[in-house]
Amino acid sequence: MTRDGKMRLGLSMRYLGYHVAAWRHPSVPADGALSFAHFLNTARKAEAAHFDMVFFADGLGIRANDNPKGSLARDMRNAELEPLTLLAALAATTRQIGLVATASTTYNEPFHIARKYASIDHISGGRAGWNVVTSWSDEEAQNFNRSETLAYADRYERADEFVDVVRALWNSWEDDAFVRDKASGLFYDEARLHVPDHKGKHFRVRGPLNSARTPQGQPVIVQAGASEAGRRLAARCADVVYSNAHDLQSAQDYYFDLKRRLAAHGREPDDLLIMPGIVPFVAATRQEAQDKYDELQELIHPLSGLAALYGQMGDLSGYPLDGPVPDPSDKRPGNITSIANNLLEVARAENLSIRQLYQRVASTFGVRLLIGTAADIADEMEEWFRNDAADGFNICPPILPAGMDDMSDFLVPELRRRGLFRTRYEGTTLRANLGLKPNVFKRS
Amino acid sequence: MTRDGKMRLGLSMRYLGYHVAAWRHPSVPADGALSFAHFLNTARKAEAAHFDMVFFADGLGIRANDNPKGSLARDMRNAELEPLTLLAALAATTRQIGLVATASTTYNEPFHIARKYASIDHISGGRAGWNVVTSWSDEEAQNFNRSETLAYADRYERADEFVDVVRALWNSWEDDAFVRDKASGLFYDEARLHVPDHKGKHFRVRGPLNSARTPQGQPVIVQAGASEAGRRLAARCADVVYSNAHDLQSAQDYYFDLKRRLAAHGREPDDLLIMPGIVPFVAATRQEAQDKYDELQELIHPLSGLAALYGQMGDLSGYPLDGPVPDPSDKRPGNITSIANNLLEVARAENLSIRQLYQRVASTFGVRLLIGTAADIADEMEEWFRNDAADGFNICPPILPAGMDDMSDFLVPELRRRGLFRTRYEGTTLRANLGLKPNVFKRS
Ligand SMILES: Cc1cc2nc3c(=O)[nH]c(=O)nc-3n(C[C@H](O)[C@H](O)[C@H](O)COP(=O)(O)O)c2cc1C
Ligand SMILES: Cc1cc2nc3c(=O)[nH]c(=O)nc-3n(C[C@H](O)[C@H](O)[C@H](O)COP(=O)(O)O)c2cc1C
Asked: Residues that bind FMN, according to the entry (chains A, B) (predicted)?
């Protein structure tokens, strides 16, 4: 829970929503992932609802595989706007909501990243945030001169140094270093310039950044690492963590662990906000909410469903969809025998058909699913919020823009009735609205 | 001259204008280079005047040196918005004008560049252009893990391959490859996907790009290379060249040489537009135009002036500004004896003081200066346009936004009276307004 007792809410709006069949829904603009109007429309709804931020996840290329053959051509994750250009365009067309986009430390250079996010922070008047990721997939590596992804430890070692360089660049100039005195002709005060001149294992970056300190001081840093290395990075540098948890206990464990780590870095528990993701299906009645979900489940193309099973079960496209899940065979990809048993056990225990099994796992890309009335979903959120499992939520509507309308119409009013969510923005920057300490850099 | 007999006009608007003292002018917002409102305001004026495009030059860091000591702190080129984020923000807030920004092939990866410009082309509805540069300075190298710039030949070899990869990525999907058929669940037509799978000397990039073909087919490619390697690249790939020439003869030589090279690549003379830069001081009378110029010249801080002489003359800060230019001494930086004689000869021949010499060379960053009435300047432009020296001009106002107002108030009406400039946009894309052939990619 946050100090002020209010939840932070983010809207995650990649593609057309977090349900795998979102693009087939009658209300969804199927070409929306390449349409600025689609994102602007939805971001403005989130702003009208006073969400803290919109968030764009990202991958540097198409990460889905074409297994079974033909599944990729049924997948909406093939074309989208690039998140930093999208963020900049939203910076110029929204006024209050925070704007967070993902950028990889593995396939970028710190100077570019420092500069681009600083620029968006200037354009937006202090609303930019960077979701730091290390990119896990071989598909991304293959777009950047490699055949496979970097080893895990190397990725995070590079990420650690990368973030330090970016922050040093953001602090090249103290607040008010640019005096711009027309009369004397002095543009900046030399005593308030600090050239980073970083020389490390992965990077040599002299600087300074050719930008002033930004309206937020520094853009907000977001992170989403679950591993030990990811948690270390978050505890040291992040202002916000997007997490993924499916039950209260594991969310609490994660929350407790991350907050506990902060002291070692001279930070307080409130300096890092933890926001688990949820995919909410909400309606006036439970039945209507369930109907909304079922409607989308029926729209999952069998090839998309089988693709979601492929990694664990191999190619099941030769079997009847409404028949039983077959025993594992040699046709599966290698090295997955033990994992395959998970899904197989589930299928056996509940006597599921192939279709039922893929509907279980393909729907929300792994994010926690909540179906019910606004009160049902607010109950779940409140329980996590009040019991040290969350400082807010990263809301991933199943379809856009309708899923955001459901938030405005049902969920947000319910949270406000409970005193759990703001009715106006407290500040003008993302940092201020999140309730984080101001970021000041002034020596004297 | 162009086939339609109309000039193409671009507005180059880096920082606060092309005069070194621009920021000190009373009408100029000294913090404008970090202000989106400043650029939007000026871009909208250019759009109202029906300019083809706005153009942002770029350097990846601060390239000016602090010689003599203290000169850098008087220089406006220390802080600015990042051009690709700025371009994306303008894409969302302008409607018709072309949007061109510079990106370096030396310190970027093709996948990022292909993706970002494609995204801006989608956001803007077909108005994006990429100015391809190779970055010459050591200061930029030092922000990207190097101590000095790459050798010239390596830079252009990399640039050649870089542009090819970007274009292959832009052609990952044929026009209309994304069928997005909700009923059948087919998102794209597999026969219209072309995975680049590039394997070259500098890059291995599999692709495909996670974006559809853009409204222009491909963003417009701009180039500004003067050397043999630069001209080869332009002749092979560029749609527009920004050139720099100070007299008709050399402009004609360059024009003739570049147009001549096109046939070898199966291209026609009209497929490449050549647009030299000019810095126009224009007013109702010649005297007023001269006064505008003189006012700015007086605002050049002596340290900025001496910095412009430093490379050739060494540190002259110990000499009286209004006294004679001294003989070269050992205090000059190395290896410049022969070049130093140029400036020295000029100073001696015209009996110039130090101040007069730096006012001669420091003012417009090397771009061609034109001072006079609209008729005077239109005469110069028309002469170049009608005599195979230019297809249009890259206009670099000395101060912003007032220098753009002068274009709208004086120069554009004069060009229109002569039938040399449009009164409305012909098309909806930059490519169409420039009169370039449509870029189509459809096999069947
Ligand atoms: C809510 C959430 C959002 C994420 N967004 C992205 C993303 O946009 N791009 C990406 O490459 N990885 C993303 N990830 C993956 C994480 O960066 C990270 O790789 C993953 O959580 C595994 O953690 P670890 O690397 O610490 O093991 C996301 C993870 C979560 C939980
Ligand atoms: C009008 C014009 C604009 C240019 N803009 C840039 C720029 O924004 N960034 C950059 O690094 N170089 C820029 N250049 C430099 C060129 O890319 C190129 O390096 C220079 O003209 C020398 O040509 P060469 O490299 O073929 O010898 C520009 C040159 C001209 C003439």
From this structure: 58, 102, 156, 227
